[in-house]
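question for whoever is on the cluster today: can someone run the full assembly for these? two chains, 920 residues total. i dont have access anymore since they changed the login thing
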Amino acid sequence: MTQANPTSPQLAVEPGFFRGRRIADLQQAMASGSLTAEDLVRHAGAAIERLNPQLNAFVHVDIAAALAVARERDAERASGKVRGPLHGIPIAIKDNVDTADMPTTMGAAHFLGHRPPADARCVALLREAGAIVVGKTLTHEFAYGPTGDRSVQGAARNPWRTSQMTGGSSAGSAAAVASGMVPVALGTDTGGSVRVPSALCGLVGFKPTHGRVSDAGVFPLAPTLEDPGVLAQCVEDAQVFMQALSGGAIAPAIAGVDAPRMGWVANVPFAIDDAAVTACVRAAAERFARGAVPAAPEVTQYARALQSALGAIQRAEAYEVHAERVESEPGKFDPEVLERLRASRPVQGWEYVRALKERTRLQAEFARLFQQVDVLALPAVAITAPALQQRTVAGPGSAGVRETLLGLTNPWNVLGLPAISLPAGWVNGMPVGLQLVAAAGADETLLALAASRWQAPPAD
Amino acid sequence: MTQANPTSPQLAVEPGFFRGRRIADLQQAMASGSLTAEDLVRHAGAAIERLNPQLNAFVHVDIAAALAVARERDAERASGKVRGPLHGIPIAIKDNVDTADMPTTMGAAHFLGHRPPADARCVALLREAGAIVVGKTLTHEFAYGPTGDRSVQGAARNPWRTSQMTGGSSAGSAAAVASGMVPVALGTDTGGSVRVPSALCGLVGFKPTHGRVSDAGVFPLAPTLEDPGVLAQCVEDAQVFMQALSGGAIAPAIAGVDAPRMGWVANVPFAIDDAAVTACVRAAAERFARGAVPAAPEVTQYARALQSALGAIQRAEAYEVHAERVESEPGKFDPEVLERLRASRPVQGWEYVRALKERTRLQAEFARLFQQVDVLALPAVAITAPALQQRTVAGPGSAGVRETLLGLTNPWNVLGLPAISLPAGWVNGMPVGLQLVAAAGADETLLALAASRWQAPPAD
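^ ran it for u. tokens below:
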């Protein structure tokens, strides 16, 4: 745990109850009777009440309803029924994921007050596993942005420095977990929307292999690229959460690989290169590898093809979702999101078809590459959290903030590969993330490796 | 067999050896020793030599090579090895399907002399089943046209009246089988390219459920809509051919359904309505049903949605295939094909994505509909064969020839359903086809039904 290192930089806010408490610790406390699920929900409620005005992580909270569920879970436990490791654990759900008992707004004026008829499949699975939903967390409007600072509910703020963005689009989930309002939260990741805010807020963020977790009831950004994922404080918590989300499709964690073959992905052409971030992440990769990490073969040569395919796929699919809204209710969009959507319209059909073909070709190339390495390592994000509303990264060849935030995460969405961001350390007091990427379907191996080998980063 | 009815209208050409001879008859003759595979190939060669100048069905023929294979098949038979019902049977392959030993031109100047490195999967399967490829048949250029009269090798001609088109794009395969040059031929069907020429030339034409037959080595028009299929003289021959093509995926024909629930599809808004054709086909449907055929529920209400989805899918995918060629070698295209390709470019990415979603929705609607009926019946084509190069159909609200030829076949490509055209009779001495459509995956049932219930049409 980050907290374990007493010289770590401190959050800019007074942490909530769950900061530094692992789900296993909470389960042990409930098992011993020193805490109840009701206690946990009250702690979540108190932390949200205190911290949310500073961080704007939650857009809807219902502690009364959560307390009622907590009492049911406590009664079950008293009668000897424990559903599993999430039994009685408070969680937060990104607000582009349907909840039958709470509004689901997508961060958009078009959906203010919208009440879905049923839980999304992944919410239903989490509830069946015993988790207690305390509220919905801010999403970048329609999840179409990695900055987390544009939605009808405003911007989420980074608990490490509240002038900075959390990253997005799972912005509120990152702020909620990093500040200790809840121990763990659901996000969605289309180009990095789980891993980017995890990296910028010092969390573990995991995106599964494409299609392994149901997206039924998740409001789509670009379904070919998108997967539900988890933001957590430690790998073990992410494992527990993914096991519940998989509905049995993802097996329990396997034993770690003894000596994973790791490959370092040199900074690719489309991301700005912050030497301090790269050095910090590379050091984390070497701690993880327990030795040197040689350069991965071939990867950077595919960078442009991956970006090009991603652009066509994401834009065509995103515009399809919103075509009628852009025509009939343009004024309700955040101007930046509207501009992005309008810029997405011109992708041509044949270019989209070509991009899908390219994706298939690139997936085959990477399947071959993953016969030579077990894990690719690279920064999750090439910079630390920019300021809210910042849109340009200074430096040699200045770049857009969006492109820079996503440039190292979105290649793995095109390929549909499982990827995790792990806290790698701090640069100028702000967290940075080490991203590990594995072969399609190697979700359990990647999580098990991370659980067995990741070590808390040394202080800044 | 059509020939069985002595009062049937006659072909405009002197039929080749295979006209009216079923594959089973040919097998019996080979089994009894009265004919050899070598004889059959010689008969094919003689018929091609005599008829091809009139019909332009074949664009490449290699009788010498076919004779060598025939002698191998005869030797096998002499040693007791018979591969199956296609053993020693001469066949023709549409020229957009790869053959390792013959050029494959797609009917296009861009590919004149092109030699693929290997057989298409379906060609390999046919050869493994014992069939002998005698040549390649004319395809409408790049299979992008249902008229069969535009290719670098010119137009195929209809054996029933050589001033008329065969329909396409499997134009040469239809002319070759209808005239008796070969007993059976391979085609491909993206919007009706097997069923349209089968109907216009008085043949049985079958398109399987999408994806059941490999398209590896088939030059693509629009892969989401496209499937290899067969043009034959009778249903039993089509069954034998499809069994070989399926590589074991399609089971041998099952027993016919005793009393199929049939539904008549009233003429849909997008096809011109020729009353004589409709009456002829409806009578054939009633002979097939052995009674009245009630109107099918719901189908016509989906006509517009089906056309719209088909348009976006076909155009985006077709342009993707040819984008670079249209840019760099436009002058090599037939002007009409070039014009169609250029008109295909503007489909937008989001429209393509929407069309795929619509397809999924419509497939679900039709899956429900096929719980109420076993077979939909309608004309394969609403008119008889137009003249070569004719592009407008006269009549109340004149229509384009292409749209009219495809309007009743292409809905089933969008849905990916198995469909067959059966000779229904003649109108003004030209054949018309009864089209039957079944639920996805019901290929064997549809073929078995057709084999057990189809009767030779009465003469004009």
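summary bc i know u wont read the tokens: The mean pLDDT of chain B is 94. Chain B touches chain A at residues 312, 315-317, 319-320, 323, 344-354, 357 (CB under 8 Å).
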